[in-house]
Amino acid sequence: MKKILVVDDQYGIRVLLCEILQKDGYKMFDAANGVQALKIVEQDTPDLVLLDMKIPGMDGLEILKRIKEDHPHVDVIMMTAYGELNLINEAMSLGAITHFAKPFDIDDIREVIKNSLAVT
């Protein structure tokens, strides 16, 4: 069973994504901040991380860097509510496989997740 970690400071988004993706047959983890996220990555090594760009404290790029340093095989998809192209480009150069703008279409996300996990 593939494992997915949702990292977002917005509780509603974590719950929504976890509920929907759990129904798709994934084992779900969620974290509200970078410290929690890195702990889960260390303990449970998810196959995929859905990572919000804007998180108080350690931001998405910093979390992405740290995940990729220790677990380069973990796929990361960035989520952002901001059309900040430079951040998205930086995230991609750091190893994110793609990104979504919020509000997102849940079916698009499910499709990309299915495709990216099928490859691994």
From TrEMBL:
Entry coiled-coil feature ranges: none
What keyword terms does UniProt attach to this protein? DNA-binding, Phosphoprotein, Transcription, Transcription regulation, Transferase, Two-component regulatory system
Residues recorded with modification 4-aspartylphosphate: D52
Query: Which domain of life does this protein belong to?
Result: Bacteria
Q: Which GO terms are recorded in the biological process aspect for this UniProt protein?
A: phosphorelay signal transduction system
Give me the segments passing through the membrane: none
Span of domain Response regulatory: 3-117
The record's GO molecular-function terms, alphabetically, read:
DNA binding; transferase activity
Q: Which Gene3D superfamilies match?
A: 3.40.50.2300
Q: Tell me the PROSITE patterns matching this sequence.
A: RESPONSE_REGULATORY
Q: Which PANTHER family match?
A: RESPONSE REGULATORY DOMAIN-CONTAINING PROTEIN (PTHR44591:SF3), STRESS RESPONSE REGULATOR PROTEIN 1 (PTHR44591)
What protein name applies here? Sporulation initiation phosphotransferase
- In its UniProt entry, the species of origin is given as Halalkalibacter wakoensis JCM 9140
